[in-house]
Amino acid sequence: MNALPSAAVHREPHSGGSGSMLNWLRASVLGANDGIVSVAALVVGVAGATDSASFILTAGIAGVLSGALSMAVGEYVSVSAQRDTERALIGKEKRELEEEPEHELEELVTLYEAKGLSRDTARTVANELTARDAFAAHLDAELHIDPNALTNPWHAAYASAASFFAGAVIPMLAITLPTPSMRIPVTFISVVFALAITGTLSAYAGEANKTQATMRVVLGGALAMAVTFGIGKLFGVAGI
Question: Which terminus of the chain has a smaller tally of CB atoms within 10 A, N or C?
Fold first, then answer.
């Protein structure tokens, strides 16, 4: 039997770093997508109600700042809660290993049996890993946690705010730079193009169907802008 080429054997990512990179890419793309859609819908809605560039700019800046801060705070709280939970689990596992080492060894054997190893092989693996580093073995097999790679909530907050801001810049430039008669068309075209890019990137990060993912993102953003523009027009006509 011919051996598989090296490229074929190693074409799939197996390192934790690859998974972490994809998670960061996914989070960044989603943050940028939120910035594009929410700020675009806001400024298009205001532009539907008034031609005043100052009103549109003020609403857009408020939307960018509030959205970026909201994303940062939400991500910080979420990641902090996850990190606290992981630290509590790590502490609990450490105490259990100190108080009940034999029970923990048997638990490790059971975990490897559940992965498909025979009882004897599972015990051999568990004994060897316990002799090397019992704590690390349990964190990996039982909790799937790397204590040296816990997500930093501040890093997550900065990344979320930055990606939202980067996405929001697109509709802000598109709505403020053109002449009043071209603001809405230019914004619609710019936003649809930007959403097509973020949709493709999100599909890549999630290994999903690129066409379907892109269409969902683009249609959702276009619908949001159409609805807010319509509402803005109604308010403008009514003089509210």
Answer: N
Tokens encoding 151: 């997500």
CA atoms within 13 A on the CB side of 102: 0
- Show the low-confidence residues of the chain (pLDDT under 70): 1-25, 206, 236-240
Structure-token match 């990344």, residue found: 159
Number of domains in the chain: 1
Nearest to residue 66, comparing CAs of 164, 146, 151? Answer: 164
Helices 153-176 and 16-49, packing angle to 10 deg: 40
Has residue 139 been placed in a domain?
yes
The candidate with the shortest Cα–Cα distance to 26, out of 201, 222, 165, is 201
Question: 155 lies in which domain range?
Answer: 26-235
In a domain, 4, yes or no: no
Q: Is residue 3 part of a domain?
A: no
For residue 62, being part of any structural domain is answered with yes
To the question of pTM greater than 0.85 for the whole model, the response is: no
11 φ/ψ angles, rounded to the nearest 5 degrees: -75, -15
